[in-house]
Design goal:
Blueprint: H1 2-21, E1 23-28, E2 32-37, E3 42-46, H2 56-89, H3 93-98
Antiparallel strand pairs: 1-2, 2-3
Length: 100
Amino acid sequence: MMKKLQEAQRQMKEIKERLERVSVKGTAEPGISITANGNRKILSVELPENFQSMDKNELETALRTAMDQAITNADQINEAEMKSAASGMMPGLGSLLSKG
């Protein structure tokens, strides 16, 4: 049992490391781009050159939209990796996780 637990811990560490290297983007008009990794960490924010002329509320809304999209994309990749690991460790567990 301890061996299986140690294997699971090792696998989870590998997944987290792999997710650190995966990049996903979220975008919003006019030219805003947010990049996050598979662990939901924001890596970069790109703004259009004319962002200073944007209305404050418009800029905040666009940033929130791009960030939500990036985090949603990261969540999807993270969830897929976790399901894959769970089904590999305990067949049938992956299908249980997908019901939630």
